[in-house]
Structures are given as C-alpha cells and as structure tokens.
C-alpha cells in the first residue's frame, strides 16, 4: 500500500488526484455508496487498508482520521430504486459521480477501484484492479464508503427493526433471507436482486 499510482499521475502533471471506491454492490437492500478522496502527497495513515480487511471499530477510527486529514473528500450514493431501474453497475457509477461532484475541487485525475471507469466529465481516469489494497487514496475512499453505508443501514435498522439490518447490513445472509421470508420485501429492498428467492426456500 503506497502512493505509486498517485505519484505516477503527479509526474504526468496532474494536480488534483483522487481515489474512488464503492461499498454495497452485493447486498439485497439499501443503496450503493461511493467515496472520492484527495489525500495530501505522502500522508501516512497508520493501519490504512482495504476496508474489507479491517474491523468495524478500526474502520470507524480511520473514518475520522481520513476526514480530518484529507485535502478533500466527497461521499455519494444511489438508492435501491435507482439500482432496480438502471442496474447495479450503472448505479455504482452514478454513486461515484455523485461522490466526485461532492468534492470542493474538481479532480483532474481519478484512480478507481476495479476494472471499469464511471466516465467522469473532464477528469482522466485510471481503473486499478484491487486498488483498495494498492493505492492509499482508494483505500481511504473504500473506508469512507463502507462506514457511510454501514451507518445508513444502522439507521434503516431503526425504521425496519424486523429485518435485523444492524447485523447483516442488507447482505444476503441466512438470517436476512429468513426475515424476508417471514416479513416480505421492504421498501428498501432491491427488487431486481430478489427475483430468485424461491431458490433459497425450495
């Protein structure tokens, strides 16, 4: 985990370089979130890693540090209705565009986790496979996106307590499927993700 991707972009003359990542492509409920982060060159953040490799407590701790030390950050989301309407890939790109739009300064270069680019107007893009384990900016974005989504799902757990969102955050766990079977589909479930429910219940 280092700044080689950011440094390469800086050597090409780019000034505002952000890392972008998403959280929540796979769940059955709730939005997909994305974050865009511009870090100061060479900033060391102890323990920074791909959000999936960190405990919830560590992610929460790093969230505060990243927000405090980042030059700029933006968070965006696309809700379950948008996911059903335009599909999860396009909804992910929409969340990424909203995260970039939330930045105070428009980036001229974006490092994006994965193998596809959202198509940002006026910004050069570089997809980085497993970027959240390689680029400090992308790893920072992965934490902001993940924590923001988890916090949102905790709020949804208050509104829809019967689904136990606080435990699974909307992912397709055994408990979640059992609750859907018992209580049906809520307003925040992704209908296109639940078409094949019969497979789970036989």
Count all strands and give the number: 5
Total number of helical segments?
Answer: 8
Largest pleated sheet: 5 strands, mixed
Low-confidence stretches: none
Mean pLDDT over the full residue set? 94
- Spatial separation of the terminal alpha carbons: 44 Å
What would your notes on this structure say?
The chain is an alpha/beta fold and 202 residues long. It has one domain (4-152): Ribonuclease H-like superfamily/Ribonuclease H (Nucleotidyltransferase, domain 5, 2-Layer Sandwich), CATH 3.30.420.10. The chain has 8 helices and 5 strands, in the order αββαβααββαααα. The protein has a 5-stranded mixed β-sheet. Strand 1 (17-23) and strand 2 (32-38) form a beta hairpin. The longest helix is centred in the last third of the chain and has 24 residues, at 136-159. The chain is globular and about 55 Å long. The model has no long low-confidence stretch (mean pLDDT 94).
Question: Briefly, what is this?
Answer:
With 202 residues, the chain is α/β, with parallel strands linked by helices. The chain is built from 8 helices and 5 strands, in the order αββαβααββαααα.
What is the element layout, followed by pairings?
Blueprint: H1 4-11, E1 17-23, E2 32-38, H2 56-69, E3 72-78, H3 80-86, H4 88-101, E4 109-113, E5 124-128, H5 136-159, H6 165-168, H7 174-183, H8 197-201
Parallel strand pairs: 1-4, 4-5
Antiparallel strand pairs: 1-2, 2-3
Describe the structure using short key phrases.
single chain, 202 residues, alpha/beta, Nucleotidyltransferase, domain 5, five-stranded mixed sheet, 5 strands, 43% helix, globular
